[in-house]
Structures are given as structure tokens and as C-alpha cells.
């Protein structure tokens, strides 16, 4: 969407990336939009107001609307109506790029559905920042967002991405990171990984190691702050079918078909479904 004169924004929704820690990590274009938008909307209005004050931008008499996952259904019609009436509306998530694990997705979709304009002032993103620092392959990565809180559901979600041939990226709470790393080691195999904490902030920290090593590290020394967990790609391409069959036969001596499939797929970092099918065949052959 073309942006006219420096003091006037065309009607539409402007998705603005905000800093994830260091307030100076904001683009000049984003500051222009914060200054010139007719209406401001934010996941956290206090955070946006504070950011604007740091950069010498006044909210003035402009509306500053709270828009988050709890009030989105109520606020979307009002924001769409403002744009339809010829206003420019800026939306900022609490930190980072809107749309990335953020309620802005539904807002942008609603605006687009009405045939109205949507554009962005791109900037910092926690997942991309972590990828630049982790030391893991970045040619392909898969962002999986937040995993479920409960261990059973978390393991199920991890199985769902176990066969993805890319670096895996997750957001995680510091209260759950040790448990998440333990579950990941069990389900994905003991892959290389990195835990990136408090990115761009004073106490930025990158811990690297295998999943089991990192799990032990966070059990021993819990951490605070915003966390991104990156997990390297498994080495399934180096494992022969004979290796898998031998491991399944050993597992079936003491385990059920289901448990054997879970154990071997996690141990070798291979997809569970073909391992389960192999275990079924081997089990039926033994019964025969």
C-alpha cells in the first residue's frame, strides 16, 4: 500500500513491529507511523505509551485502544469501522512483530475481509533474533509457537513436528522450559539445541547443548525472562532401516507395540508412524 505524504497516512491497518527488549530496536518508519496514525491500538497500551514517550512521541488526543485475545471479538468491529470511515489505524503487539503468536492475526484478517488495506512496518522478531544467535542451521526452520502446558499434550505436539526436516523454534515460559526440554529429548531424540533468553536485554543469555544437557541445566539453574527454544534437525537420514528394525525388535521384548514405537522414534529421531507400522508387522510375525 502506497504511503502518501510524511504527515498523513492513507486509510488502512498498519501493523508495526516493536522492540522485544531494547527500546532503540525500532525503525524510523515505525516511529513515523506512531506519530501520524489517526488511531492507535495495542496489545498492551501501557507498553506502547511508554515506548512512544521514550521516543518523544505524544499520543495527544488520539484514541488509544486495547486490543488483545480477551477483547478481540468486541474490538475488531470498531477498528474495522474506523478504517472504513477513512482513518489510519496502527496496531502494535506487546513486543516484536504483530501476527507472530499474536492476536493481530484475526484483526488483519477481518480488515482484509472487508476489502480494506493492510500494511506493515517490519522490524524485530524474537524467533529470527534467536536464529541469528543460536548457531543452528538457518537454511530451513519451522516455527511452532507455544507448546501445550500439560506434558501429555506437549509430547503429542512434539511428535507432530518430529519429522520436520528443519530447525524447530518454540516460545516457552521460564517456568516450564526444563520440563519442555525433557519432553523434547524423549520425543525428538537428544538433538543439539539452544535456549535463547532475554534477547536484546541487559541479561541476554544463550545456552547451547543437547536437549538433555539443557534440561539438566535449567533444572539446576532456573531462569527468568522471555525464552525461545531452538532444536536442531534430527539425523534420521543417517539411520538405516536395519538399525530401526533391530531397535524395534529389542524394544518389543519388553514393551507393547505402541510403547516400542514411541521409544524407538524418540531414541533415533525418526518419524513415529513408520516405526509403529514396522512394530505392528514384527509383532504379528512373532505371534504367527
From TrEMBL:
Residues 13-215 form the Tetrapyrrole methylase domain. Residues 241-282 form the RsmI HTH domain. GO terms for molecular function: rRNA (cytosine-2'-O-)-methyltransferase activity. It comes from the Bacteria. Keywords: Cytoplasm, Methyltransferase, rRNA processing, S-adenosyl-L-methionine, Transferase. It is found in: Cytoplasm. CDD domains: RsmI (cd11648). It catalyses: cytidine(1402) in 16S rRNA + S-adenosyl-L-methionine = 2'-O-methylcytidine(1402) in 16S rRNA + S-adenosyl-L-homocysteine + H(+). Its main location: cytoplasm. It is an enzyme of class 2 (transferase). GO terms for cellular component: cytoplasm. Its EC number is 2.1.1.198. Belongs to the methyltransferase superfamily. RsmI family. Catalyzes the 2'-O-methylation of the ribose of cytidine 1402 (C1402) in 16S rRNA. This is Ribosomal RNA small subunit methyltransferase I. It comes from Tropicibacter naphthalenivorans.
